Structure formats: C-alpha cells, structure tokens
C-alpha cells in the first residue's frame, strides 16, 4: 500500500485543480471509453451485430441490432435492443433490454429484460458493448433453460415447431417496431 | 485515466482494458500478473474483489507497481496538447506534457503573477490582465485606504492618496493625484518597481520548476533506495562483502590495521551524500564489514574470491564439488579392484596350502598303516609290549 501511495503522489502536483475538475474528468473518461468502443465496434465489422448512439451528443444511450445466428431457430430474424450506460461505466454493467419482443427462455417477453450472468453479478470492467452483443447472439441459440425468465418458452424449447410458432407470433420486424 | 490524445495508435499491449487507453501509472497484480491503470483497478476493486480479466480473487495488497519498462513505454508515448482545439499544436512525450501545460502552453491555466491577485486565467491573457486589472489596482487600494482614513476624519471631505500607496507612498492630503505625482519620490522609482515585480515572478516560476524537479528526484531516490534494499535482502551477506570488495580484501592482507581503514575507505562515496538523508544503514554496514574482515576469512578456510560475482563463485564451487565427487568415485573403484585382486590371490594360496596339507595327511596315514601292521605282527609274540606301544 505504501508503494501505491508513493507512486501516486508525484503526478498530483496541483491537487486543488484536480479535485475541482475530477467529476468532470470522470465523465470525460467514460465518454472517452465509449467513443473508443464505438470506433472499435465500427472497425471490427463483426457479422450480425451493430450498435450506435441513439442521439448525437449523448454517448450514454445506444441502440443495437442482433441478427439471429444461422442454423438456429432465430435465423433470419433481427432484434433491436437498447443499451443504457451508467455514469460509473465500465465498473458497473450497462442496462440492456430487447426492444423487439423476443420469445426466448431467458428474455422477458413484455419488458425485454435479459437474464444473463455477465450483465449481473459476473460483470467485469473489461467487457464491452461488442462482447455483450456477441454473448447475447450466442444466448439466442443456446438458452440457459435452468433459470428461465419465460417458463413457457423454456418448456417449449424441446419442441422446435411449437416454439417457432410462438416466436413468430410475438416477433415484429425491426422497421415496424421502430 | 488520462484524457490525452495520442498522436499514434498505441500498441494494444500498452492499453488498459478497463479504460481502453494507454496505462496511466500502471499497476500489475502479483497473483495473475495483469496490468491496469492504478486508478482503473482501484476503482474496479471497490466494485468487486476479483481480477477483471480472469475473475481470480484480488485485493489491494496484491497490487504492485508495474515494471519500469512498461512505465517508460507509456510515459514516452507522444501526446497532443489538450488545448489543441484552442490553437496549441504542441506535441510531446506524455511525461513532459504537465510541464508544458504549466510552464509553456499559451492556453494553460495559471494564476496571476501579481501578489494578492487570486485570478486564474490563460497564460496568453496575463499581460492584458495585468495591464488592465492591476494598473488601477493601486488606485483601488488607494481608495480603500482613503475610505479607512475617512472613517477617522470624516469631516475632511477632500482627501487624496498617492497612486503609489501600494508600494509605500504615505502621502494623503488635499493635492490631487496628478499634482502630488510631480513631487512624489515613488514616481521616479516606478520603472524599478515594475522590473522588480517581473523579476520576482520569474524567480517564483523558476523556484516552482526547481521544486518540482526536487520532488521528482526525491521520489527517484526513494524508489532506488527501496530497490537497493530489496536487492540487499535478496543477496544477504553477499551484498556487503561484494560491496566492500576492494576494501575488504586489503583488510585481509593487513589484518588489524585494515580493519578500521576498510569501511571508511569504501564507505567514502556514500558518506558524501549521507548528511542529506537519514543514515539508518551506515552503522550497520560498518559493523558488518569489520566483522567480515576480522572473523570469517581469518585463516583456516581459504578465502573466497570476493572480487567475482556471486554467480561466478557459485559456478566455481559447483565445479570443484563435481571434481571432488569424481575423485571420490574413482578412488572407491580403485580400492575395490585392489581388494578383489588380493582376495583372489589369498584364495589361491589357501587352495595350494590345503592341497599340501592333504598330501601330508595321506603320507602320515600311510606311515601309520605300515606301523600298525608291523606292531600287530609283533603283538602276537609280545602282547605287553603291544599294549605299551598303543598307550604311547
């Protein structure tokens, strides 16, 4: 601990100005990280996922889309999700929900809430929008039926045809819902 | 979590995976050797006591400063001046940027140089500010003085003070400022005071710079001392003996006289600086070196070569150990062979002796048979005699 404080000490030449601008600086650093993530996401061109800030000038609210992975029951469907970042991101997970109704064992069909461990207690500061979207995409094909948020969907999962009917009954294409 | 913009895209190995920017004051975990900015990992630990990368348990005590190489790599990244948008196109290594902001940048925030003024503004605005705000500040203070005096003698309404009251002119009286100035001694010294103020501010600035450098140096010295202590602990007794390598050896030669001379000789370099720092180890070192010179290398055991490094000596010792082991081994084998030879020879001798014995016994047996036969023949004639012979 002694080592820590001593190494932290030198850069604080002017503690007064630091304290005054610290809250501003924290907000700045979150914005900086979010713009960095946006850039990474746009450069990486991951297939089937995308995300972008909802409004210009507010980096804390994003919308994203996830395409159902091929060879799963969700193939060919596109889901819209909304991502809301807290001010202490990335130390605390962002709030994510499906805007498109998604019939899935781990998704609340009305509210769109998602039951995924890395969005709750397993969250780590090194996760990013990209890793979340990829996790959600794979969650579509491989639900965790042990702890369902939608018990009907969980029980129907073993009978794909019935599941597909339910899924299509609730699903609305992205353009319509937006 | 610095907010600098980096001129080039930084190497991804130098990027903190929490803030996604090159490390600021990097810290490495002792348990899983992941590196983060100190601020990032300390904040992450307040949310959960796990390593953000591999979820292994982690506490503040497991954090150590990252390797100096990593520190230098990130400190030397070239960054843009944060005031780029306002027009400062300066770029420099990251570690030099705070200095640029404080001492050079036209857009850096600095306090007004005039004593007592607490205003903070951009450096480029200072001359205008000084001219504007402090040209009449003397007037201002004059007025204040006037007000105070006014409370004492409120009846005399026409009371003026000199514009130079701020630098010491005690004049108060009925003359207007312009009239008084003609005779004011401070008026002629005005230029000197302006120059003096400028020099004062320059010196203050230099003083700040020097203080910063002293701070940096002090922290460096502290770090070095800590590393030195760590090295000393790791080396144990070898540290002192190799440190006093030259002095210590001359001591072995000239026993008693050298014992006192040794430490002072070799300690000379340290003593020069020691008045500036608390001298906790000096005494210890003196004691240790004298004990080394008197006791350990006295005579019975051949002295180790203290001139070489610890590693070299260890290698030498190991080699001689191997040599000794080989010698013992060959000696054992040789004696074994000798023993076997001797045994063989003795066995043969035994065999021959046994054969000879056998021959002799056969001869004796033959002789006895003959004798018995002869006696038996005689016995028929003389029984008593035979009895006496057998008795024999």
Characteristic terms for this protein:
heterodimer; A: 178 residues; alpha+beta; Ubiquitin Conjugating Enzyme; 4-stranded antiparallel beta sheet; 6 helices; elongated; disordered N terminus; B: 392 residues; mainly alpha; Herpes Virus-1; two-stranded antiparallel ribbon; 15 helices
What is this structure, in a nutshell?
Chain A is 40% helix and 16% strand. Chain A contains six helices and four strands. Chain B starts with 25 loop residues before the first strand and ends with a helix.
Summarize the structure in words:
The complex is a heterodimer of chains A (178) and B (392). With 178 residues, chain A is an alpha+beta fold. Helix content of chain A is 40%, strand content 16%. In chain A, strands 1-2-3-4 form a 4-stranded antiparallel beta sheet. In chain A, 24% of the residues are buried. Chain B is mainly α and 392 residues long. Chain B has a 3-stranded antiparallel beta sheet with strand order 2-1-3. Chain B has a two-stranded antiparallel sheet with strand order 4-5. In chain B, helix 14 runs antiparallel to helix 15 (383-391). The radius of gyration of chain B is 50 Å and the shape is rod-shaped. Residues 141-157, 242-271 and 278-302 of chain B have low confidence and may be disordered. Chain A binds chain B through residues 1, 3-4, 6-11, 13, 17, 25-26, 28-29, 32-33, 36-37, 40, 90-92, 122, 124-126, 128, and chain B through 1, 3, 17-21, 25, 27, 38, 40, 43-44, 46-48, 50, 52-53, 55, 60-61, 63-65, 98, 102, 109, 212, 215-216, 219, 222-223, 226. Chain A: It comes from Hebeloma cylindrosporum. Chain A: Pfam families: UQ_con (PF00179). Chain A: Residues 1-25 are annotated as: Disordered. Chain A: GO terms for molecular function: ATP binding; transferase activity.
